[in-house]
Input
Amino acid sequence: MSNEPPGLRASHADRDRVVDVLRVAAGDGRLSAEELDSRLESALSARTLGELAELITDLPVPPTLKGKDLLVVEQHGGKYVREGRWSVPPRIDVRTQLCRVTFDFTHAVTTSGVLRIEADMMHGKLILVASPDIVIDTDRLNLTYSKVKLRSKKSAADPRLRIELAGTLLHAKVIEKRR
Output
């Protein structure tokens, strides 16, 4: 959005991205409930990219979505939450310190049968909200003073989604929750 002219008309996707940034900021305690409501209303009625940019200029840089194939979450402190109806890319890179990251797959739209999450986490938690038709594979994780807590060890016969976790966790946890 920042590379586009500010007078360019905003799309639904542009508004959705700003709404996500505002909700994360409110969850981190950066915005009060009143400020969140006001900015959400402005975001949903914004006509241009410039109007949207003004709503988040005082907030941390959000995770970036590079194309539709890669979601990058780089954050120091606070929390990042992806929930509701969202499109799951084939790969997610999580590079965080002192951060709680939650991916809720309950209503997520999956276009690929496999999701690879590359994690480089220090002192944090990765929470995966899954359903019984999702399989989580943690065999490629390098754990140092870290834990993996999966709700079910059984794999579904025909999973809707297979999540492959790889990378390094230092003083971190991976927790699976079921809805």
